[in-house]
Amino acid sequence: MNTKSVLPLLILALAGLSPAAHAVPCEDAPVDAGIEALCGIDAPEDLVIFDDRYLIVSSMAPADSLFMIDTRDDAVSAMATALADPADGLRWGDSACGAPQTIVSHGLDLSRDANGRWRLLVVSHGERESIEFFEVLAGNGNAPSLQWRGCVLTPENARFNDVAGLPDGGYLATDPSGATWPRTRALLGIMGVNVGKVYRWHPESGHTVVPGSSAPYPNGIVVAPDAKSFFVNVYFRGEVRHHSLESGALLGSVEVPKPDNTNWSSDGRLLVASHRGSIASVVGAVEDAPGERNSIPFAIVAVDPAQMTATDLFVHDGSALGGGTAAVDAGASLYIGAFRGDRLLKVELKQGGL
Question: What is the distance between the alpha carbons of residues 2 and 248, in angstroms, rounded to a whole number?
Fold first, then answer.
């Protein structure tokens, strides 16, 4: 995805308009019944749903916007994104952190703050390692747009993967293996060494490590609805773990092969993307260009957060999309992103829902 200038999107955002949206057909459409491919976004690694209609999608390719899919017609567009200090002066995050020129968006989290504002947190690997804060703006019948509200730089020697917002204005973020010697540390993680950890950031205290969170490559993370605990995917251990937020104590776990990202489903379960290919195939695909497809098999797994049991909802051989990383249910369909490739999948759910 080529980097575009900031100004046109900034003007669109301030005007309350959206860039042109249209369905982007894939040249090699899936042949399996009930599966569609939506092209137009390179490396659509994570996605969240806003207003039960709009998918906000990250892209692990340099850009000056995030992306959006309108699930009513599956139109794909660059999302109107104002990467500039807000005119109203409202800032979140670290007041010393300035606006970026580009973002390479990775993990996403969408939540509502105490004032009813929609807060989108974005792990970015652009010109810096950071968590970017955006407000999702919508109204007057227009599609949503994003206003940058602030950021927090990652701690030294950390490279975040996923993020989950907290009611106190802070967040949790996974650091799978640190920023230095990534290949060596990833190899140690494969061998079961605790090379990663979960950080907690608070506006007053900054970053601290969550006790008991050290693990072999912690990946996706979500906060429980009551904000008293969190769920984290330990990729190289093949587990989804449930931890107390305050003490870090392990409350439960369930086996899920190579779990990537997690989103809450509409029925209160965790939707976990699970890679079913070899470690070698995943490591090799990480080195590919963002838009280059692979054929890594994967599954979308539903985890019951109370019983900590796992059930495969959708299993795919990687022919239409390889290395699925995240899933969102919207109506009667699952939308699935991937860490490499030029598409998302739309999968028709059996019997019209979960």
Answer: 41
Q: Report if pTM > 0.85.
A: yes
Q: 107: Cβ–Cβ under 8 A, 6 or more apart, which residues?
A: 45, 46, 58, 122, 123, 160, 161, 162, 163, 173, 174, 220, 221, 261
Does residue 136 contact residue 118 with C-beta atoms inside 8 Å? yes
∠ CA(142), CA(113), CA(15), 5° rounding? 25
Burial of residue 88, with CB atoms counted within 10 A of its CB: 0-12 exposed, 13-18 middle, 19 or more buried? exposed
What SS3 state is found at 7? helix
- 72-84 CB burial, b ≥16 within 10 A, e <16: eebbbbbbbbbbb
Q: Express each pLDDT in 215-264 by its tens digit.
A: 999 999 999 999 999 999 999 999 999 999 999 999 999 999 999 999 99
DSSP element (H, E) containing 218: strand 218-223
Q: Which two tokens stand for residue 297?
A: 């098999």
User: Which DSSP symbol is given to 210?
Assistant: P
Pairing outcome for strands 54-57 and 47-50: antiparallel
The DSSP code sequence of 288-303 is S-TT------EEEEEE
The answer to whether residues 198 and 174 touch, using CB atoms and an 8 Å cutoff, is yes
Q: How far apart are CA 221 and CA 202, in angstroms?
A: 17
H helices of the chain, where?
Answer: 6-15, 182-190, 279-286
313 token code pair: 């909802």
Sheet with 54-57: strands ordered across: 47-50, 54-57, 67-70, 75-78
Tell me the H-state helices in 72-181.
none
CB count, 10 Å around CB of 40?
22
Q: 236: Cβ–Cβ under 8 A, 6 or more apart, which residues?
A: 189, 190, 192, 216, 217, 258, 279
Tens-digit pLDDT profile for residues 123-156: 999 889 999 999 999 866 789 999 999 999 999 9
